[in-house]
Design a protein that fits this description.
disordered C terminus, seven-stranded antiparallel β-sheet, alpha+beta
């Protein structure tokens, strides 16, 4: 699988191998498909390239400004009173954006955020300026986590992150 688990942001090869082996995501580097056999050559060829995956039937990507997304992440972490306690929503921090990964074809329930799906691409680490805040794999072992339905974000977006803290 990967040299060490979980993959670290600075270990580009471990990230790319996790995408292909653990998540079974078909990767592209600069828009060109990269096979598992071509990972080493692609990494040698480009240290600053854009690694991406098409959403296709893999997931929907809910994109929101980083500050708004931070409030959602905090709400999930603090939301002990919320019905979806323990739910994990993979989140990618990419520049001034946070991108949440949810089940394919469920993102349409989200209003006020851009939703990427089908033939749209999402740039992934090790692309410069992006890192996993909540990765799409288990931290304990090399296996993918089940993506939640986007409906879970509706609840987190509608409850302010400080509401749970204020009730304590």
């Amino acid at each position: 699988m990967t040299p060490a688990w979980p993959p670290r942001s600075i270990d580009h090869k471990a990230l790319v191998v996790a995408y292909t082996n653990v998540l079974s995501w078909p990767l592209h580097l600069g828009g060109v498909p990269v096979t598992e056999a071509g990972i080493d050559a692609a990494l040698d060829r480009s240290t600053h390239g854009v690694w991406s995956v098409l959403c296709e039937d893999l997931f929907d990507a809910v994109v929101m400004p980083a500050d708004a997304g931070r409030k959602v992440v905090l709400a999930m972490q603090r939301g002990k009173d919320h019905q979806d306690v323990g739910a994990v929503v993979p989140c990618l921090l990419a520049g001034s954006w946070r991108i949440f990964f949810v089940q394919a074809r469920t993102g349409s329930v989200i209003s006020g955020a851009r939703v990427l799906s089908a033939m749209q691409r999402v740039a992934l680490p090790p692309t410069e300026g992006s890192r996993w805040e909540v990765p799409p794999w288990s931290r304990a072992e090399p296996r993918r986590i089940e993506l939640p339905n986007a409906q879970i974000l509706v609840g987190w977006l509608s409850s302010p992150p400080d509401a749970a803290a204020a009730r304590r």
